[in-house]
Amino acid sequence: MAETAATPPESLPELIATRDWDALRGILAPIADQDIARVVPELPSEEREHLFAHLLGRERAANVFSYLPTELQGQVLEALTDEDKARLVGELHYDDAAALLDELPDEHTELLMDMLPVADQQVLQALLTYPEDSVGRLMTPEFVAVRPEWTVGRALDHVREQHDAGETVNTVFVTDEGGVLRGMVGLRELLLGHPWSKVEELAADDVVRIGTDEDQEEAARVIRHYDVEVLPVVDAEGMLRGIVTVDDILDVVEEETTEDFHKLGSMSAVGLSLNRASAGLLYRKRIGWLIVLVVVNILSGTAIALFEAAIETVVALVFFLPLVIASGGNAGAQSSTLMVRALATGDVQARDWLRLLGKEAAVSAALGATLGIGVMGAGSWLGGPDVGFAVAISMLLVVVLASMFGMLLPFALNRFGLDPASASAPLITSVVDVFGILVYFSVATVLLL
Amino acid sequence: MAETAATPPESLPELIATRDWDALRGILAPIADQDIARVVPELPSEEREHLFAHLLGRERAANVFSYLPTELQGQVLEALTDEDKARLVGELHYDDAAALLDELPDEHTELLMDMLPVADQQVLQALLTYPEDSVGRLMTPEFVAVRPEWTVGRALDHVREQHDAGETVNTVFVTDEGGVLRGMVGLRELLLGHPWSKVEELAADDVVRIGTDEDQEEAARVIRHYDVEVLPVVDAEGMLRGIVTVDDILDVVEEETTEDFHKLGSMSAVGLSLNRASAGLLYRKRIGWLIVLVVVNILSGTAIALFEAAIETVVALVFFLPLVIASGGNAGAQSSTLMVRALATGDVQARDWLRLLGKEAAVSAALGATLGIGVMGAGSWLGGPDVGFAVAISMLLVVVLASMFGMLLPFALNRFGLDPASASAPLITSVVDVFGILVYFSVATVLLL
After folding, report:
1. Are A293 and B293 in contact (CB under 8 A)?
2. What CATH code would you report for A9-129?
3. Is the predicted ipTM greater than 0.90, yes or no?
4. Fold designation for A279-448
């Protein structure tokens, strides 16, 4: 286990309930900001107010606050006086403040904005103009930039002066007089360099960068692919506007992945902690797909109705219906899951579909044959050898068809600009049910009637 | 888009095929290592050999090599002479070299080991003794450490001397004479500090750390929770053994997530790029669960067989069977997906199950009622009002039961030390089919016969 502070964070709510503020100051000192943030949901409003307004001190209050989920930030703010509110928000990093203001109701945003210093207002307004989910919304506009013609000594002096401005001063950016990104240099290289060398002699100039309006997922891809710790963000003119760090990306990746999971479970992305999501919200996120699937399932029922006569003749056929169509659904769910994830990680590209289809045909034929041979015995036992044979042949056909469908649907969705993750297991299963029923009863009709 | 070098990497294979080595040296110079790595799979063996042995230069060859997937690393090594092999492996970072040696067949590992300098052999042997998937296997043993009693000036001199040793010199660790971790200090703080201050005055001593034998997933959790860029790794005696950086964690998180996706699609984790996985491997990863599910599906068939008399009396009942049982499966798949992901991200803890069960009961009752009322019309139209009513009641019951089951199974698996992600949509769907059939035909028998 990771070693943390002496007082276990779980006991904090009780300790805070004692309201022995002087003792608490000492107790809180060695506890990590993130661990304090974790217990905030359990505190009553009054104690939250005291914690953020008085107990933690300005800078620390802002740090703890920045680790709270956005809904909770809104609640904490409501517990504070206007003055304390402005102080807390004024102390936040710009990217955190922008994310907060974006989530608050408009009237709150305006109220808060008016209480902030004008310089902060301008920076925040600028950040809020970038499109949602864009890199501009994720980046922090605080960085340290030096000029290429400066000496290393001057650059280091500049870094020392700016030590409050940059979240990540480990990397120093090189910009020209117009603010256009020209390169970057590690603080370590500056430190190791000769004080009279020019910055441009040490800086790398072929720097990977990204545009403010790009999608945050693209920033995640670039950071992963190029294995960089910090990615400079530039506007259309090439001016350095901010930086994105690898820890920002961890959050983006987790959010995107959770969205993919929810879609693969045939839901709208819940976009909220499951712990805090209300029953009403969960209902709304789930009912849509269930209704769509019901429509598909009614088609299955109609498909069965087509074969009413066959069922009346050989009722035993119905016993194997769930087996055949479910196996198709399962194989299809496997191949769609493989494709959705491989497309999401970039392991597989859109142009690979034909080659993968060939492989899938081979794999699914082998799977279908294995299962078909396996169920032939069960079929023969419950319904006679003819039924056994019909079940085996249907199994092979349905598994191959379903796997092909499960593989191609994510590519097709991707091709039309939709999210491949919408090719959920339940969607595949339901669609495959329809053609599973048609194949099974058709085969049975031909072989048995 | 991220701006990259002038020559698009896609055209590299063609350029390398020209074998105009002198021109290629210039062309490759501005291209990122990762982009060169990306085209290696497309090169024939002879050109790979030339690329890694001659064209790239020692250090760059090792960097490009470290971005290749392990299977490909093995292939590239085979194309090289023994001497070139040893040179390449000797140039790798220790963590990359250990990962490679671990994957190679034993006789290759020994052969390669023998060719390395003794000091390297010792470090690599030590790394390879840590359990698989442990932090010890992930960490790099290269870091820069200073003593608490040193002056800032001396510490900075030490950093300058060590500038080849540390992958991440942005953070300097503080250890005592026994090598026990005492704290850490940013290179930036050292730089900003007075040269005659003591290191201990600047260093943070309440440092989050992790043990060498901990699981890599735990390291990911700690790095995310505490938002640190680098995590020191200590042994049982508290001695600093290595460091894990946030970009190592990105890879761990992606691998773990892909495993979860594959399990949720009812497969064994493929653990390999889908692009390179052979048809045989994919068959083996998929067939196991399909067979397990077939057994469950045969139970469904047997359940239907119990109601043979009812089906013979009212064939229309069968038309709604897929609808009712599939809706149950879909709702169950939704709730299991929500739980699996929430447990994986730590959003939900094992102890939350009872509270979440209450919420799930409310949500699923609302979902079941909505769907039940919706299908009552279709049921009445195809089979008369009695069938419609039976379908609606069954729908409500099956959706609620299935959602409860889908929600509880991940918690139950977790409780018994199994992976919650095994509660896959196909497994839920298949199990729910069995009790869906029983509920549906029982309700129908009571209401209709």
Report:
1. no
2. 1.25.60.10
3. no
4. Tetracycline Repressor; domain 2 (1.10.357)
